[in-house]
């Protein structure tokens, strides 16, 4: 009985998370004591006509990248958008981990883009792409890749495409090739079995960062992994386990999370950013919400949303509280009071002391996590800072020094994090401010990064020189989130309570089956009774009409931050 009650509680909790979000936003937007000023007016309404045009322009952006990839690069992993060619692993230089961690000679961009095709409603191209993947891709390769990257970009994509195909209600059209017999799931399973040796011979239970897809962990390979690398497996591994009924994947990922959890600092409760998988010793003691840690926090929350296990939620909540306690600087409330604009800084895990004066572009995703956690006020604040930085350069520098107000690391590889949180904030608030932000993003990408045959990495935000690389997440995430921002009637938006995005932007349909562990008989029986998916919970459309004419962050605060950064909004 107790198990049943716990299970029921866990089942409704994701919807409570969403409810909590809309409650928080009600309080956060009490802005009408202030008369609207120019900024309020500027970021007011976006017409239906313009919104549709923006959606179409985003589609065009995706297809320009995708079609050029298919023409010039496929079956290679990535497109070189300037020289119109393909790119695979750097076989000559195995130590080139910038490339080899990600590219494994498995048509990465095509696989990563599968569910974006579905979301665009392009069932014909989706089926064609699925066929190409099934007929031509094998993971039986002598490639040494990063487990984290293969997990989020490939495994997540294959599981997502498989689940979308199985959806009998066909919200994205007829995605199922008539001959389909679960081949994508088989591929996912095969890939995961090649990643699993990362856990072999691990003295701590943490996964080795890299495996050779044929031979497992290469002898003498590096044992230092970032925390996110070791702790961002649970969503994909858990879904796979529950689909095929083999607990080994989920258990390995869960154990890794537990090991990380036990390694947190005894005094502060914070995590470092790099750990040695053999010794469990922290090699990097920087604690923050960006590179090295970001998706670890994200997956604690997302694992709970998917699987409903209370442990994941408590770990997330405890961590989130500590993040705010130790890393947050600036005025106590985002939308009231005095002081500097709130900022999450990188700290020393041992004492919470500020360690760097830069923030990185990956941290822009944290606002999205805050939306999911229902902390709307903070999400609005976090996002507003990145918007101002985006406005200053037209894109986000990889690292921005908040003390010198200048970039520390200049490149921008078409990352999605800022677009992602813009989209999630729009979903949660319906405030047209975020459509304006989306328009700015789209304009910049087209003006600054469009190359001969695709979209290119910005080499330096100072002179806007480009590099010949289009990472696969541009199609799988950046274009997807931007399109979903504008395409308000997309099935993903109409039924947003039924989908969750992985950290690579792959959509996973939520459902009772995810609460079933087929290897656990008791839970399997109880699970039959759970989850009433209730559409009314996710409706953010109910926000007062009036309220949408005000800025989410009050205009004087937005002016404050744009003034500090020297940006004209
Ligand atoms: C993507 O692969 C994922 O979004 C990941 O979580 C972080 N890095 C890239 C995009 O920047």
Strand content: 5-15%
Distance between the termini: 57 Å
Bound molecules: 1-deoxymannojirimycin
Q: Report low-confidence residues grouped into runs of 5 or more.
A: 1-33, 522-544
Structural account:
This protein is mainly α and 569 residues long. The protein contains 21 helices and 20 strands. The strands form nine sheets. The protein has a three-stranded antiparallel sheet. A hairpin with a 4-residue loop joins strand 1 and strand 2. The longest helix has 27 residues, at 2-28. The radius of gyration is 22 Å and the shape is globular. The chain starts with a helix and ends with a helix. Mean pLDDT is 90; it is low at 1-33 and 522-544. The site of 1-deoxymannojirimycin has 10 residues, from helix 18. The site of 1-deoxymannojirimycin (DMJ) has 10 residues, from helix 18.
In short:
Helix content is 48%, strand content 10%. It has 21 helices and 20 strands. Helix 10 runs antiparallel to helix 11 and helix 15 packs parallel to helix 21.
Descriptors:
single chain; 569 residues; mainly alpha; three-stranded antiparallel sheet; 21 helices; 20 strands; 48% helix; disordered N terminus; binds 1-deoxymannojirimycin
SSE topology:
Layout: H1 2-28, H2 38-42, H3 48-73, E1 78-80, E2 85-87, H4 97-100, H5 108-119, H6 123-136, E3 144-146, H7 147-166, H8 183-195, E4 210-212, E5 224-226, H9 227-230, H10 234-244, H11 248-262, E6 274-276, E7 282-284, E8 286-287, H12 294-307, H13 310-327, E9 328-329, E10 343-344, E11 347-348, E12 358-360, H14 366-373, H15 376-393, E13 399-401, E14 406-409, H16 417-429, H17 433-449, E15 450-451, E16 454-455, E17 457-460, E18 465-467, H18 473-486, H19 491-494, E19 499-501, E20 507-509, H20 521-527, H21 555-565
Antiparallel strand pairs: 1-2, 3-4, 5-6, 6-7, 8-11, 9-10, 12-13, 13-14, 15-16, 17-18, 19-20
Helix pairs in contact: 1-12, 3-17, 3-18, 5-6, 5-7, 5-18, 7-8, 7-10, 10-11, 12-13, 12-14, 14-15, 14-16, 15-16, 15-21, 16-17, 16-18
1-deoxymannojirimycin (DMJ) is lined by residues 152, 295, 362, 415-417, 473, 477, 503-504.
């Amino acid at each position: 009985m107790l198990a049943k009650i716990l299970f029921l509680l866990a089942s409704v909790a994701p919807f409570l998370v969403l409810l909590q979000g809309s409650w928080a936003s009600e309080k956060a937007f009490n802005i009408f004591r202030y008369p609207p000023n120019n900024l309020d007016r500027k970021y007011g309404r976006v017409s239906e006509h313009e919104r549709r045009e923006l959606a179409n322009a985003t589609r065009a952006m995706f297809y320009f990248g995708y079609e050029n990839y298919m023409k010039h690069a496929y079956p290679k992993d990535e497109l070189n958008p300037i020289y119109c060619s393909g790119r695979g692993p750097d076989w000559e230089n195995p130590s080139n981990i910038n490339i080899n961690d990600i590219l494994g000679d498995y048509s990465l961009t095509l696989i990563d883009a599968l569910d974006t095709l579905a979301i665009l409603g392009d069932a014909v191209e989706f089926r064609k792409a699925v066929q190409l993947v099934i007929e031509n891709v094998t993971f039986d390769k002598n490639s040494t890749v990063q487990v984290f990257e293969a997990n989020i970009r490939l495994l997540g994509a294959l599981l997502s495409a498989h689940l979308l195909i199985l959806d009998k209600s066909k919200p994205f059209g007829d995605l199922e090739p008539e001959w389909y017999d679960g081949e994508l799931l088989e591929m996912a399973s095969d890939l995961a079995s090649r990643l699993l040796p990362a856990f072999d011979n691990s003295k701590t239970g943490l996964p080795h960062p890299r495996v050779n897809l044929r031979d497992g962990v290469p002898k003498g390979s590096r044992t230092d992994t970032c925390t996110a690398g070791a702790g961002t497996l649970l969503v994909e591994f858990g879904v796979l386990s529950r689909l095929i009924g083999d607990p080994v994947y989920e258990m390995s990922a869960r154990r890794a999370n537990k090991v990380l959890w036990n390694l947190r600092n005894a005094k502060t409760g914070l995590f470092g950013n790099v750990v040695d998988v053999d010794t469990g010793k922290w090699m990097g003691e920087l604690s923050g919400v960006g590179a090295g840690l970001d998706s670890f926090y994200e997956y604690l929350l997302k694992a709970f949303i998917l699987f409903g296990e209370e442990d994941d939620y408590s770990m997330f909540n405890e961590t989130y509280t500590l993040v705010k306690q130790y890393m947050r600087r600036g005025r106590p409330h985002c939308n009231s009071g005095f002081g500097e604009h709130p900022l999450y800084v990188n700290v020393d895990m041992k004492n919470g002391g500020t360690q760097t004066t830069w923030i990185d572009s990956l941290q822009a995703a944290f606002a999205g996590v805050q939306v999911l956690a229902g902390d709307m006020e903070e999400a609005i604040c976090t996002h507003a800072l990145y918007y101002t930085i985006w406005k200053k350069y037209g894109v986000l520098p990889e690292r921005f020094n908040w003390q010198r107000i200048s970039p520390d690391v200049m490149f921008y590889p078409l990352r999605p994090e800022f677009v992602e949180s813009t989209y999630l904030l729009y979903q949660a608030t319906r405030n047209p401010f975020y459509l304006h932000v989306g328009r700015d993003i789209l304009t910049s990408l087209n003006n600054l990064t469009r190359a001969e045959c695709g979209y290119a990495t910005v080499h330096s935000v100072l002179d806007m020189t480009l590099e010949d690389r289009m990472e696969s997440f541009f199609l799988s995430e950046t274009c997807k989130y931007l399109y979903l921002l504008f395409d308000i009637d997309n099935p993903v938006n109409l039924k947003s309570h039924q989908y969750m995005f992985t950290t690579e932007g792959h959509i996973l349909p939520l459902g009772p089956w995810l609460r079933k562990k087929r290897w656990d008989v008791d839970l399997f029986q109880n699970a039959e009774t759970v989850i009433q998916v209730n559409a009314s919970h996710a409706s953010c459309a109910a926000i007062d009409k009036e309220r949408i004419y005000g800025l989410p962050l009050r205009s004087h605060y937005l002016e404050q931050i744009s003034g500090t950064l020297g940006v004209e909004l």
